[in-house]
């Protein structure tokens, strides 16, 4: 999962580790596998001058990153692959994901669900009453964007996380682990939480955030939908 250290790597070389029908595992990859509400990357494999469409990226039961290709082709293990991530999609997801972390920072309640999309994204909050002012939240979010807060990554152990349970905002999803360590995403001094997704380097890259609507989803759920301009 090389993207954990460099989310801006668009192209790279690798080789095929294993093949199962139209599912390919590479020896190394920067492709992001679907998880935590963020879609998997799409893109292109170039193998011996042939372009092969990667239509999705997922995790298997052994936590391997599996690249789904459009059709079965004659490939073999150890074959060299030049990989290109669909950067327009990836970068939009990065901006969206960081925007949702900002949303967490201005609404201090537990997160019961969420989904990142290309056109719009959402978070569900554990709220009994609709005490959220749409215009106020949107204004606060865009102030944070313009303040140009830097995004950094920290790593802690499971024991350290157990000592700081308040770091975990998601109520239904466990923090992702990598080699028994957990990555924290830090946005300036305004937000810090476990996350295995892809993010931009600065809030300024997000662009203008629009709150589309706030919905009631049960007695204790308020869904906030956002889009980016």
Mind explaining what this structure looks like?
With 229 residues, the chain is α+β, with helices and mostly antiparallel strands. The protein folds into two domains: 2-85, Elongation Factor Tu (Ef-tu), domain 3 (Beta Barrel); 90-228, Threonyl-trna Synthetase, Chain A, domain 2 (Threonyl-tRNA Synthetase, Chain A, domain 2, 2-Layer Sandwich). Helices cover 17% and strands 38% of the residues. It has three helices and 14 strands. The strands form three sheets. Strands 1-2-5-4-3-6 form a six-stranded antiparallel β-barrel. A hairpin with a 2-residue loop joins strand 3 (43-47) and strand 4. The protein is globular, with a radius of gyration of 19 Å. It starts with 10 loop residues before the first strand and ends with a strand. The mean pLDDT is 93.
Which class do the helix and strand fractions yield? alpha+beta
CA-to-CA gap between the ends? 30 Å
Side-by-side strand order of the widest sheet: 1-2-5-4-3-6
Number of strands: 14
Number of domains: 2
Q: How many helical stretches?
A: 3
Short description:
By secondary structure, the chain is an alpha+beta fold.
How are the elements arranged and paired?
Blueprint: E1 11-20, E2 23-26, E3 43-47, E4 50-59, E5 65-69, E6 80-85, H1 87-106, E7 111-115, E8 121-126, H2 134-146, E9 151-157, H3 158-163, E10 177-178, E11 181-187, E12 191-194, E13 209-216, E14 221-228
Antiparallel strand pairs: 1-2, 1-6, 2-5, 3-4, 3-6, 4-5, 7-8, 8-14, 9-11, 10-11, 11-12, 13-14
């Amino acid at each position: 999962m090389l993207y954990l250290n460099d989310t801006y790597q668009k192209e790279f070389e690798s080789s095929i580790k294993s093949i199962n029908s139209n599912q390919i595992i590479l020896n190394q990859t920067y492709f992001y596998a679907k998880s935590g509400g963020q879609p998997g990357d799409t893109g292109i494999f170039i193998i011996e001058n042939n372009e092969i469409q990667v239509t999705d990226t997922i995790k298997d039961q052994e936590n391997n990153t599996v690249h789904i290709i459009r059709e079965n082709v004659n490939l073999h293990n150890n074959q060299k692959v030049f990989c290109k991530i669909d950067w327009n999609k990836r970068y939009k997801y990065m901006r969206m994901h960081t925007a949702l972390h900002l949303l967490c920072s201005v609404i201090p309640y537990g997160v019961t669900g969420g989904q990142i999309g290309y056109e719009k994204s959402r978070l569900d909050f554990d709220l009994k009453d609709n005490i959220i002012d749409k215009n106020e939240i949107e204004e606060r979010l865009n102030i944070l964007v313009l303040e140009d807060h830097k995004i950094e990554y920290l790593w802690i152990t499971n024991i350290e996380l157990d000592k700081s349970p308040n770091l975990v905002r998601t109520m239904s999803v466990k923090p992702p682990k990598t080699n028994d360590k957990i990555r924290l995403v830090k946005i300036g001094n305004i937000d810090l939480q476990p996350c295995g997704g892809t993010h931009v380097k600065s809030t300024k890259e997000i662009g203008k955030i629009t709150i589309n609507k706030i919905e009631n989803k049960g007695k204790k759920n308020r869904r906030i939908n956002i889009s980016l301009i």
